[in-house]
Specification:
With about 425 residues, the protein is α+β, with helices and mostly antiparallel strands. It is built from eleven helices and 20 strands. The strands form four sheets. Strands 1, 2, 3, 4, 5, 6, 7, 8, 9, 10, 11 and 12 form a twelve-stranded mixed β-sheet that branches.
């Protein structure tokens, strides 16, 4: 990027960052755009793994101690305590023996004292236990957040990338992402509708309030591409070598850096694009999305808990997962004359008041299940689903009695 291009991009990011903010009457922020790093990794349940996690917290505390005001952990009896160096050291010391007790650890430190507002800085992790690690191959999770203003400073941008590289070198990462996020308070549930509005307008601003659930939601595939997309060796190897070579030739601003442990970091350009859905979407993001489609989870769990407000239910989560898909792109090249309209299957998430919209054959789409014929206006049947699936059964219409369309144009509105 030229200096002028960087200046224009920064102006664009900061303009849209203001539009993502949500204040209370005293001008305190419930939501803001920030920079985040999230990884899901193996080894977090072992003694050495939990020790490395706590080392990350020590490193974070040493660098940003003056910004930290709140602390919450497995020890705090479901409440925040005031962050002090002494309290932090005591907490770290007590958590350091959790693996010996066959426990997973949880720790959260951040700018906000009580967790009621969006943090400028935060570091949080949920690890599995030795039993979870050995018997169930469970992932652990680690997330760091920094102010959006870091993008204005080249030194801070380098510091952000150094954190990405450090985490990828330290841990056996399966996958992760880093870049723009919608930052919500620790108690995020009532602000999910705002995150939904932001993430469906800005495709490259990650909805991440439920990131801690990713260890179970994405055990073998990634959530999404981002400014930095992180792939462990097993996922990276699922992409054919010629795909990487083609991307490098077509989009030189897409770079790949691989650590000695096999974890790869794919970065798009020197600064992120917000992915404004009201403008033509950047081709480099669409091309990377196309290239990584084999390792992106096609039918994910719902991103949000809510049921009675605009939010990421199972249907909208599916649309979001496919937001970068472009039927007029093939092997990274967009057909300028392409007229193919983007479509999605007709999907309905079950619920108490939900009724079958079309008579026909329906089949569970987000878990295994038999296809059955259902009548219009009748409730969907309750069928067994995985216990860890936050969503209700997502039904897909596979044939219609009236012979009508089986596809719709996806919409977040």
């Amino acid at each position: 990027m030229t200096l002028q291009e960087q200046k224009n991009r920064l102006n664009d990011i900061m303009f849209h960052a203001q539009r993502c903010e949500l204040y209370d009457d005293e001008h305190r922020l419930y939501a803001k755009m920030g920079l985040g790093i999230t990884i899901y990794f193996y080894g977090g349940g072992s003694e050495s793994g939990q020790r490395k996690v706590l080392d990350v917290f020590r490193k974070y505390q040493e660098k940003y101690n003056k910004y930290l005001n709140g602390l919450f952990s497995s020890l705090q009896n479901k409440r925040f305590v005031k962050f002090t160096e002494k309290q932090f050291a005591t907490t770290i010391d007590k958590l350091s023996v959790y693996a010996e007790k066959n426990k997973g650890l949880f720790l959260f430190i951040g700018t906000e004292r009580w967790g009621d507002y969006a943090n400028d800085y935060l570091c949080t992790s949920v690890t599995t236990s030795p039993t979870g690690e050995n018997d169930y191959n469970l992932l652990s999770y680690l997330r760091l957040v920094f102010p959006i203003g870091w993008l204005k400073d080249e030194t801070k941008r380098s510091e952000f990338e150094e954190w990405v590289d450090y985490l990828c070198a330290q841990f056996d990462v399966l996958h992760g992402y880093a870049g723009l996020e919608c930052i919500l308070p620790y108690g995020y549930h009532e602000w999910e509708p705002h995150e939904y509005q932001v993430a469906t307008h800005y495709y490259n601003v990650m909805p991440n309030c439920n990131a801690f659930m990713g260890d179970s939601d994405y055990p073998d595939a990634i959530k999404s591409i981002a400014w930095y997309t992180i792939l462990g060796k097993s996922l990276f190897m699922r992409i054919e070598p010629q795909v990487w070579a083609r991307l490098a030739a077509q989009y030189p601003e897409i770079t790949v850096k691989t650590q000695a442990n096999g974890v790869s970091v794919i970065k798009i350009d020197e600064l992120p694009d917000v992915g404004d859905a009201g403008e033509p979407l950047p081709l480099n993001y669409q091309a990377l999305n196309e290239a990584l489609r084999p390792v992106i989870k096609a039918v994910p769990n719902r991103l949000h808990h809510l049921y009675d407000a605009p939010h990421f239910d199972a249907v909208k989560t599916y649309y979001w997962t496919h937001r970068w898909d472009n039927p007029n792109m093939k092997d990274g090249i967009l057909d300028p004359e392409g007229k193919i309209v983007k479509t999605a299957p007709i999907l309905v998430e079950n619920g108490e008041t939900v009724r079958v919209p079309y008579s026909g054959v329906w089949q569970p789409f987000n878990h295994n299940g038999e296809a059955i014929h259902l009548e219009k206006g009748k409730p969907f049947p309750d069928v067994p689903k995985p216990e860890d699936l936050l969503a209700q059964t997502l039904w897909r219409l596979i044939s219609r009695d009236d012979g009508g369309d089986l596809l719709v144009i996806p919409s977040f509105r």
